[in-house]
Amino acid sequence: MEFNSYWYVGLGILSTLLLIYVYQKTKDPRSLLLFLTMVGLGYIIETVIYNFGHSYQYYPKLIKHDSFYDSNMGAIASNALALPAAATFIATFRKNWLWILYFVSFFAGIEWLFLKLEIYKHNWWKIGYTTLGLLLVYFPLAKVCYRLFFQPLQGKLHSIFLYLIISPVSATLQFIPVMFFSSRYYELGLFDTHSKDTTAFGAIYYLSVCLFYVWIVKQQWKLKWFKYVVTVCLTYVINLILKKAEVLHSQVWWDLAYYVLLSVFVLKFSLIISKHLTSGQKKMPDPGD
Predict the structure, then answer these.
(1) One-character DSSP codes across 105-120
(2) Where are the alpha helices (DSSP H) in 149-254?
(3) Which of 47, 49, 128, 195 could potentially form a cystine with 68 if both were Cys, beta carbons 3.0 to 4.6 Å apart?
(4) What is the mean pLDDT of each run of 10 residues along the chain (289 residues)?
(5) Strands, DSSP E only, in the chain?
């Protein structure tokens, strides 16, 4: 493992330990729901500013064969672990603004350090954007979301939270075989490399299919198994269309089968999460209990 990798892996381990600590102290699955919600929110933001805006570049040196996929791993360390774990800690333990300021300063310091170590680079992004985003939006919003989990969620709120929770699961499982095994790539001609095209279109793909998962979960069909049939058929047909259009290029024999099985898993996960969101709990537990 190279010098760069130790910093990113270390940040990931610390974030994971913080999340484990939160869950061990609360024993409340809503802390995990909040974590996934904040990951989902972070992924959507990254789609805009990183995937399409190329705001910054990470250099974790974890993936050797493609520098942009390697950068994606750095984005995962930040937006799928560090930031949402901190947000979960702040919201679950109902920390005040002093704690929020502490974590904002911590992440601003980490960003500055990574820039100085040249394991991270700004294109047009600024540390001030990170600071304001965390201070005014990300961490305060986490506290609001956590409070909402203690009431039964219905209608639009249910759909929004279900979407935010399932989307990072769908996205991460979609990208892992692409980044590590080069199982497929998308060719749009929008960017100068297949990896940038693939990351951009892959983001559009997961954001779109997760809308479908939310829709089909809310359908009150008598034959429950029919949801799986529709999901599998739609996934199969969409992938065939993308192949015919020469947008999708599969490079391993199991590529299509993996995405079909993934669709079944994500649908099952969506159904489980939907039930948790509709259950609610009137009183928020004392974090000290």
Answers:
(1) HHHHHHHHHHHHTTSE
(2) 155-181, 194-217, 226-244
(3) 195
(4) 90 96 92 96 94 93 93 92 96 95 96 96 96 95 94 93 96 95 91 91 94 95 92 96 95 96 97 89 51
(5) 56-58, 120-122, 184-186, 248-250
